[in-house]
Design a protein that fits this description.
392 residues; mainly beta; 2 helices
C-alpha cells in the first residue's frame, strides 16, 4: 500500500490507502450558483480522522499542487475530527482552506472570493462543550449517511403566499425559501344591533356615537369578512370554510404552523445482473400526518464496468400522492466519479437533491432508481429526510 499524499488523493480519491468513505452534496456561492463538493475521510490514527473537501478543478481556484486537471479534482479544504473511546465526537479542528488567501473557497465565476464553508458535524464534547452524540459518530460498521442538510440556496421564483396566525404575509419560493412581505391589519367589526341596557331598552345614543367615532382600543373580537372557501398553507394543500358569521367567527389555523416532527428514511437497493431498474422502494405515510420531503440523497458504486460505456448514469424519481393526485419529481442524473486502474473499472454514482415534496396521510411514497446500462449486480443506498406535519 502506497503512503498517503495529497497528490495520490487527487489522482484517485477512492483508491486503497486514501479514502475509507466519502459523501457528496451541493454548496451555493454568493451568486446562487450550485457547486458539487465531495468530502472524503481518511483514518490517520486511533479515533482520529482527516477529512478533505474536493471540488471540480474547473470551478475553483486553489494554490499550486492542490489540483489535478486530469481527474478534475481540486482540494479546497481539510480538517480533522477526534472521537472518544465510546465513538462520540470529541474534538474538531479549524478547517484549512487552499485558496490564495487561505480564508475560504474562490470560485472562478465572478462570485465573492474567500467564501467559507461551515460544516456542522454536531456539538463535540471538548471543542463545543456538547454531548458528542447529535452528529458524526464513530462505530464499528459500514458508513451510513442518515441526514444531510445545507442552508445554501439557488435563485428562486415566488410559488405561493399564505397568511399566518400572526397575520404575517408569508411568501414561498420554489427553492425552499420563505420571506415575510408584510402584515395584514385586523378587521374591526361592530355588532349590528344595539345592546339592551339594564332597563331592557336599546341604548341607541351610545350605538350612534360608537358608529360615528369607532373605538381605537383592542376589539373584543376580530371576524373574517370574506366568505366561501379559503386555501391556506403552503401551496394551498388543505382547505377550510370561512363563513361571514359575526356571532360565531370561525378560527382558521395555517397548516404551516402545525406541529412538525423530524423524519428520515434510509433504504438499500440493488440492480440485478443485466437489469436496468432496481426494485422500487416503497414507504407509507403514517395515519394522522402529512409528509414533507426536503432532501434526497443516493450513493451507488459499480465495479468491473465495461470501459466502452462512456457515460454511465443512474437516475431516480420520487412518486407521491397529494390531494388524491399523483406527483412525480424527477431527481435528474447522478454525478459520476470514474476510476480506471488496469483491469479494474470503478464508477461511483452520487446524487444529492434538495426538494420540496408533500405526501398525503396514509398514501404510499415510491422511489424509483434506474441506470442507462446493463452490468453486473450493483448495490446502493437512498436516504430521504424531512418532517411529518400533524393534521389538525
Amino acid at each position: 500500500m502506497s503512503p498517503f499524499s495529497i497528490s495520490s488523493l487527487l489522482a484517485d480519491p477512492f483508491g486503497a490507502g486514501t479514502t475509507q468513505f466519502s459523501t457528496s452534496f451541493q454548496v451555493f456561492d454568493s451568486l446562487g450558483v450550485p457547486h458539487d463538493l465531495m468530502i472524503t475521510w481518511t483514518k490517520i490514527a486511533g479515533n482520529t480522522w482527516q477529512y478533505y473537501g474536493l471540488a471540480r478543478d474547473s470551478e475553483v481556484m486553489v494554490t499550486t499542487g492542490n489540483s489535478n486537471p486530469s481527474t478534475e479534482y481540486a482540494l479546497v479544504l481539510q480538517g480533522k475530527l477526534g472521537f472518544n473511546t465510546s465513538g462520540f465526537l470529541d474534538t474538531e479542528s479549524v478547517p484549512q482552506y487552499f485558496n490564495a488567501s487561505g480564508n475560504g473557497v474562490d470560485f472562478n465565476n465572478g462570485s465573492e472570493n474567500g467564501q467559507m464553508l461551515k460544516i456542522d458535524f454536531g456539538m463535540s464534547l471538548t471543542t463545543d462543550g456538547g454531548t458528542g452524540g447529535d452528529g458524526m459518530l464513530q462505530q464499528g460498521s459500514r458508513s451510513i449517511l442518515l441526514t444531510l442538510t445545507q442552508d445554501g440556496f439557488s435563485p428562486g421564483i415566488l410559488s405561493g403566499i399564505t397568511i399566518t396566525e400572526s397575520r404575517d404575509i408569508l411568501g414561498y419560493y420554489d427553492n425552499g425559501q420563505t420571506k415575510v412581505f408584510g402584515q395584514m391589519l385586523p378587521t374591526l367589526t361592530q355588532h349590528p344591533d344595539p345592546k339592551p341596557n339594564k332597563h331592557g331598552r336599546g341604548d341607541t345614543k351610545r350605538t350612534e356615537e360608537t358608529r360615528s367615532h369607532p373605538a381605537r382600543g383592542i376589539p373584543a373580537a376580530i371576524s373574517a369578512v370574506q366568505s366561501g372557501v379559503w386555501t391556506v398553507g403552503q401551496f394551498g394543500t388543505w382547505h377550510v370554510n370561512v363563513g361571514n358569521d359575526f356571532e360565531h367567527p370561525v378560527p382558521v389555523q395555517d397548516i404551516s404552523l402545525t406541529t412538525k416532527k423530524p423524519w428520515a428514511y434510509t433504504q438499500s437497493f440493488q440492480f440485478r445482473h443485466d437489469s436496468y431498474s432496481a426494485e422500487d422502494l416503497v414507504l407509507t405515510v403514517p395515519p394522522g400526518s402529512r409528509l414533507f420531503i426536503h432532501h434526497v440523497s443516493l450513493q451507488s458504486t459499480s465495479l468491473d464496468l465495461l470501459p466502452d460505456i462512456k457515460d454511465p448514469q443512474v437516475i431516480a424519481s420520487v412518486h407521491t400522492m397529494l390531494q388524491d393526485s399523483p406527483v412525480i419529481y424527477q431527481l435528474g442524473l447522478s454525478d459520476v466519479f470514474r476510476t480506471d486502474k488496469g483491469d479494474i473499472h470503478q464508477v461511483r454514482h452520487i446524487l444529492n437533491k434538495p426538494v420540496g415534496l408533500y405526501a398525503d396521510t396514509n398514501t404510499r411514497v415510491r422511489v424509483i432508481v434506474e441506470r442507462n446500462y446493463e452490468g453486473e449486480q450493483q448495490e446502493g443506498i437512498v436516504s430521504l429526510t424531512g418532517y411529518l406535519e400533524h393534521m389538525p
